[in-house]
Amino acid sequence: MKSTLGRSDGILVRSCWEIDDKYLHLLEQIHGKPAFPIGLKPDDAGKDWRLIRDWLDGKEDRSMIYVAFGSKAMPTQDELAALAGGLELSRLHFLWVLKKEVNTGKGNKAPLVLPDGFEERTKGRGLVWTSWAPQLRILSHSSIGGFLSHNGWSSVVEALYVGLPLILLLMFINQGLVVRNASMWQAGYEVPRDEDNGSFTENTVAESLRLVMVDDGVVWG
Asked: Burial, 154: exposed, middle or buried (Cβ in 10 Å; 0-12, 13-18, 19+)?
């Protein structure tokens, strides 16, 4: 990377001046080269997007919560159950993009198992999607009103880009700074966790979702 930077005329950054003004200037000072925030790269469309879009088109504007945790974050089975319970208790409409596996610890994985009857009980107001999904296109759809995310930087930037509030659920310790920044910008609300063991419950998930989606004005300053 150092040799590549040495041969370059500038640095492209997936961000914008509004978010990273002082850090982009710091990057320029450190490397002696101009930094160019390039914004976002649109998702590729495909048959998956058409199927999802057709479902979203039947929903009211800003009525849906989009739930996704990126390509690397993987909840445990207990966390998955708490998320499912929270979505169910919230009574909100949702689109949940899920991997087909859960984290069982120490790098091990197991097949995804949703709580018994979850999809049937939420039928009509919720869609669980277990394959690739064009996130930016989904976030840009008029039916989406909030984003429950693992706080990956790309996801946060995409939400800010389309003007959506975030419900922040920390999955990786190195994303703590992202959570703090989003909270500082009044762009999101962090799902409370137990201070002793770091767990969260279906009740705290449901309360956080409704706080952002129903109690308008709580997040945005």
From this structure: middle
CB 143 within 8 A of CB 62: yes
Q: Is residue 106 very low, low, confident or very high in pLDDT (cuts 50, 70, 90)?
A: low
Tell me how crowded residue 19 is: count the other CB atoms within 10 A of its CB: 18
In tens, the pLDDT along 132-144 reads: 899 999 999 999 9
pLDDT digits (tens, 9 = 90+) for 141-181: 999 999 999 878 788 888 888 889 999 887 765 566 666 66
Is residue 177 helix, strand or coil? helix
| Listed residue (180, 184, 181, 189) closest to 207, CA to CA | 189
What tokens does 18 get? 């509004």
Angle at 169 between CA 164 and CA 172, to 5 degrees: 120
Among 68, 23, 88, 45, smallest CA distance to 164 is for 68
